[in-house]
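User: Can you predict the 3D structure for this chain?
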Amino acid sequence: MEGLLQSVERDLSIDPRQLALAPGGACVVALVPLRWLASLRERKLPPGPCPRAEGLGEAEIRTLLQSSVQRLPVGWTRVEIHGLKKRKLAYPLALGSSPPSEEHSGVPETLTRFMRDTAAQNYRNLWHGAYHAHGRPYNHSPVAPEGCALSAVKQALQKVYGCPFLQVGRGSQCPSPAREGPSASRAATVCPNLLRAEALLESPDMLYVVYPHVQYCLHDVVTFSPAKLSNSHAKVLFILFQVLQAMDACHRQGLACGALSLRHVAVDEKLCSQLQLDLRAYESPEGQEEEKPVQNIVEAEPLRAPQPRKGEGPRDSVGQEELRRLVLDWVHGRVSNFHYLMQLNWLAGRRWGDPNYHPVLPWVVDFTTQNGRFRDLRKSKFRLNKGDKQLDFTYEMTRQAFVASGGGSGGEAPHVPHHISDVLSDITYYVYTARRTPRAVLCGHVRAQWEPHEYPASMERMQGWTPDECIPEFYTDPTIFRSIHPDMPDLDVPAWCGSGEEFVEVHRALLESREVSQDLHHWIDLTFGYKLQGKEAVKEKNVCLHLVDNHTHLTSYGVVQLFDQPHPQRLVGPPALAPEPPFIPRPLIQRVRETTGREDILGQLADGADGLVLEATPCEASWDGDRPLGGDEDLEQGTEALDSISLAGKAADQPCPSSLQTSGHPFPSASTVRLGRRSKAGGVDAGEGDDGRIVLPEGFNPLQALEELEKFGNFLARGLRGRMEAPEDPPATPALKLADLFQRDMQALGVLVAETVFATRVRMLRPQAPLWERFLTVRGLCSRYPKEIPIPLQPVLETLLQLSEPVEPLVTGRLFAYKPISWGLPPPSPTQLLSPYSSVVTFPSYFPSLYKFILLYQMRKVEDEVQGRELVFQLWQQVEGILQEITPEGLEILLPFVLSLMSEAHTAVYTAWYLFEPIARALGPKNANKYLLKPLVGAYENPCHLHGRFYLYTDCFVAQLMVRLGLQAFLSHLLPHVLQVLAGVDTSQEETKCLGGTTEDEEIGEGDEGPGPCTFGEAIQMEGDPGSSGLGLLDYTSGVSFHEQADLAESEDFQEGLYVSGSPQTPEPEAVSLGRLSDKSSPSEASLGEDRPGDEAESSQHLKQSEGWDEEEEEQAAEDEEDVAGQGGGVGEEEEEDEQDSSPVVSELPLADTDVSVDAGIPGDDGNGEEEEDLADQSEDKEQRILLDTACKMVHWLSAKLGPTVTSRYVARNLLRLLTSCYVGATRQQFMGSSSDASPLTSGNIYQKRPVLGDVVSAPVLGCLMHVACLYGEPVLTYQYLPYISYLVAPGGGGGPSRLNSRKEAGLLAAVTLTQKIIVYLCDTTLMDILPRISHEVLLPVLNSLTSLVTGFPGGAQARTVLCVKTISLIALICLRIGQEMVQQHLSETVATFFQVFSLVHELQCQALRPEAPSPSEGRVLEVPFSDGQQRSVDLALLDELQKVFTLEMAYMTYVPFSCLLGDVIQKIVPNHVLVGQLAEQYLESASPVGQDPMNLAPMPSASAEQDPQSRGVNHDDGNSGTFGSVLVGNRIQIPVDTQSAGPLGPSSGVTGCVGSLCEMGGEENSLKRDLPRCTHGLSGNWLAYWQYEIGVSQHDAHFHFHQIRLQSFLGHSGAVKCVAPLGSEDFFLSGSKDRTVRLWPLYNCGDGTSETAPRLLYTHHRKSIFFVSQLEASQQVVSCDGTVHIWDPFTGKTVRTVEAWDSRVPWTAVAVMPAPHTSITLASADSTLRFVDCRKPGLQHEFRLGGGLNAGLVRSLAVSPSGRSVVAGFSSGFMVLLDTRTGLVLRGWPAHEGDILQIKAVEGGTLISSSSDHSLTIWKELEQKPTHHYKSPSDPIHTFDLYGSEVVTGTVANKIGVCSLAEPPSQATTKLSSENFRGTLTSLAVLPTKRHLLLGSDNGAIRLLA
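Assistant: Here is the predicted structure, written as structure tokens:
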């Protein structure tokens, strides 16, 4: 194809440096500018000359043309140019009848039309056959003229690609495009599965098609990423489906596709396939011999450098027959080692000049030793370089990590046991060729900084440095030693060579030497052969990562295994047959001969290559291939990890052939240079041969040649699949028809499919083998290995390749002729194969709808959110139809597209809203966590695109998350991200970084101090890029596989100390609770209705309408909710408006209507103190308000739904942590702006000063925290919030001067703010009880930090001032609540501590201390004596900060109100009250020279302030409310008159103003006391005791603790409860009873543990006692069985389907549901038959017999493995059978117990747990004979049990609850149920894993909830 290269250079004016032939020479790859390509697309005639790549060297451009290189210079791209010679298209081409009309295109095909078209086609074919046989010889009418192939091809190409031909080349003019094609405007390609053409070009001699460069093709997938298609027939079928679509489109336009191969199918990561046509098939075969084949590197002279572009690799015919001949020639020495190794490189796909996949040759000499010696070819270079110890360490460490990660199941394992990674890396290639590679390329690939002296300077250093193999240049190209860099010296050759040319000559001779030849087959085994995988690879320490990691990402290079049998040794002649006869010992002349022999040897060595002496180390016994290195047992242990990995090819377990031992003769015959070798076995000592016997040389074995010949024969038979006959010459060709080309296309498609199936067996075929050779090869493979063909592909290959018919070669373009009619069908065509009524290809029924989904995804361009929403909405309309019939294999194809939508900015939110629920429903919780959790986190963490984000915070969407991800996964992994929006949109990213632990400035942060009560995100680390989240989430855009997957690693919980996450969850009576998603909580109806367009609201309602209840059900739900209105729902309605805005700033309006813009609470603060920027856009402002409003309502709903324990563990703890983040940063600590210019200290009253920005941001968080307290009562405040506050304000560890970090500073502000909110809600009794704790654990630590003379604040004086104002407000509030006497009794120390700081600062000012060093960062601490006689440490750097805070104004604004409030008491409790009074007077004099009292800035309040209308749930006390000395009148505290004595500031006339200012209320937000409403969800009795216990249990405690605390009773069944089953969200459970009913019960906390709960729904359609009830994961439907299976809707109680036994005498005896993504139910009947029923389809899926001729009794129990791949059945005889659900094969059957099997469960890791009437509970591994653990109940059988983590909770009829461990060592604990907590006999048991509760059913129909 050299002519094509020259034609492209001439016609397109492209610089020849920018052109290269593609591997195989099928096309030309060109590096072109994007603007030049754009001009081609725009049909500019003629296109200008292609610009040159200025600034790029020739070597750099050559590298950029390699397909494995992906990074290109900006503005450049690669194209593939295919050419057709016009002179080869001059033959006539009969177009035949017109192609099938397109009148039916777009219309769904019907069976009637398919049969009609098939009959018409058969009729035409039979008629044409009869005419040609009988009528044509006698028909002498003139034949219609045939059309020219050139015009037919041109017209067809223009139709297919929708663009005209452009004239290029010599003398090209500018003709009208209308004359050249059907249309001047460019149309779309007729099929999206056809690779689009960038342009069609025509020169006087050629036609060109310019394609974009194909990154990956199907050949790359099957060769380098076989795991992409493994375990899934659907993926292969879907690629075939897309190829057929493209072929069908081409055939309809009259264009043949050519001799398609795997390289013609372009594939991307999502398996979207595009077909590239093989236009060369149109060229006539005449004249091909005119072209001289390109000379390749193999034929080059040894001393000549290969041409990099023209000699990319050998292009000789190297088919299978040629490969056999090549092996034979090499074995017998007729082919050089170099030539043979280069041919193997070419077969492996290695490309000359590709830095990632360059050919490799072995290093044959060890240059690191003096004089050199031969390298040991039995070991890989990696092993020689690293050493066995290092490789063993690597393998063992990766094996341990592999086992620890769960066996690497589920996609690509992060750790796979291996020894080596590659045989030649790209970095090594560039280091090898550094002397002739441009500097820019080296800096881009090796090291960014240019360090020329760090590159190896000599061959010795180069070989010692690299663990990789050699490259051919060191054997052929002397220029590789000469440097093109002025600062990099030439590469030094070894001392025994004088130049690079001499080294290349000697090195090549060494490669061909006898010593190398006799061991080279070992190196071939290591690099291309059977020692790459399996036990041999482990033994040779040669396990290659690329072959065992099961990677699913696409790549165009890697390690390829060519042989799976030991390679034969080269026959170098018998070692004993030397040129000289062996020595015969003769005592008389021995000494003389030995001397001359040695002299001759030395003389000949001196004549060698400059005295080079090569030491050949003889093979030692340890290298005997029949002897394993570490023994068979060690080898078996070493391959344990590899056994669990599906390998691409199975390595034969044959031992390595015994290696020959060298003869040691000094004259190797194969060397072209005379090289000596020292003899170590030349003869024996004469003293041993006195008897005159002839002593043969060591290693002489006359049978060795026969053994080698036998091994060679075995290799030919097993490794190269026998010999094939050469095809005969085809007869003369009749006229070529287009129909013949179409038939050839179908035959090429059959060959392509077969090559996909036998990918590992057709690697011996050369890359561009002719179609006939490929056809014969795959036919032979299909007949030889029919069982390797997947069942769905067998009829395809049979039809396309006619496997059962003998074929004769034709010369009319086809391989053979199809029969006119075969099995009633005409010859195959794409339309026929695509038809759903054709049985040739059994495409799954969901393929057409899945194909439409993908086409819509690919065709729509999304540039903004509106287009993104439209696209996702259209996809959502289609996805339901797909999911109705899709299988798990189909989900693997669909899921990457959904993940891509969820990761794109414009579609992420809408994809989550529309597509998450249906996709997660099909996936099931385990797979939904694995694949969807990471993109969901990304959607919540992306603050850049606000539009539509509020959808993700609606309660109906959060309910979907809980149901589809599972409750525990949602709470642990997603809830923290959901709640972050409450702290402001901009806080999300910053707070996410804090979730993992401490922030940058938090050296002694919360994660390190004390118990760490609320570091809730310790296990949720999201730092770094999104792909490396701490959740262990992988990136699945490259592929999805549900096979052999491991569970998502459970994130460790966030508490270690006192407060640890617990789990009782209490439900809320919403339809959402069940997981059926109603639209009741549409986002903020008041605010959403006007802000959202009508169509958006309509579509939202339409979207969820199918998910909600029916109208009558909604009415019933409303009635049900009225009962709980005071419990959960009612509190949410009444209190949500009160609580969400309980900020000191915002008025009591809802957030959406407040005048204070909430975007002020969402400032652009990144923690660096930057100024916030107001959002000018009102729509964004509204969006933010809607977002916060929706999120607050969702949190209120969630708190009521989850119940007290789960809410406290997860919701409240996350909110408390967020509260701290609201105050981080200097911006958050700025006082809010005001209309007046008053100082922050003078505005507002004493206990409610002007708020800071953090108060606005924290308002939603505080509101939600108070709502939780309103729901569950005062204990939340005192037992959870206050301990957390104490933890926040606790001083850091270590004494001495310290500086707060920014998070600790924010924690102090948050603690004081939260304490102020708590004080308002505490009743008087509780307040007095905990007042000492508040004083000593909160107030005093805060004051110590505030008044410290050595502790600095990161925020400086501003932060200290804010904390001072907030602390004084808090103290004043407490004083107002408790009165003067209680202040003197309990708070005297607190008040005195605060006022004492004024004296200290005053004395420091008087002493005039100044820091010597002006730098505030280098504070000097001094011991300073004070007037009270104490010495205190003072940090001089803090003096300025303290003086700015504790000013005269601060003294006045704090002392005056306190003196008015406390009266004379202040003189008793404040020792320095005189000094503070004087400071206040000084301020008064300076501030009001005219005598105006600054206290009058605040107006007097009305005596009867109106109560806010929104406080309807709050009842204020009247009259004497017990506020200890003060009286609450309306909104005002009335202080008794006798306490208003004059203070030190003068008469009481000013006091009235002070008190008025002190008591001013700005609405009920500032009320001093508010009562928590009484709620039936409030904690009391047993619930309170259990809650207090649970919030203190460490989450790291994985054991189940049973305390016998009765929490709830469920009464209603009249018969024994046979089964109980909690739903996934643990807020409802199902129970089945002997009374023939199934009941649905709510699990909401109510009362004190003695209350009884009524069922929510009753199902009464059963006719017998119910023994099984469960829920299907995907559809959420209930399955219950009484001998007949009922499937019904838990929301309506309506029956969906019943499955009755086929024979009424043989009822169903056991039932199990399959886990998602499966939708089947497994049923066992009394006749020991297992049947599978798909709930979506009628009839049966499968039917398997379990008995197998054994009388094992009835099937009592069934269990399905979590992966759904196996099912185990337990019989009444104690026998158990394990069955593969995919094949129906019985994997194992064994007598497990001596009695009736009562229950079986299957858990992860192939573990089975069974209980029997023989009193035993046994734990088994699926395929192990002996049980893992065995527990024996002494008195009663364990008739019911359930799982909790790695423990089994058991129950017996004696009412004993036991906890058994699945892990080592086995342990068991038993508790007897007391009659007070449980009456009757225990019949059923279920564990609520998140809440850690037990549901116990009894024989009297009662069900108890115990903890």
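The chain has a mean pLDDT of 74. The chain is about 35% helix and 10% strand.
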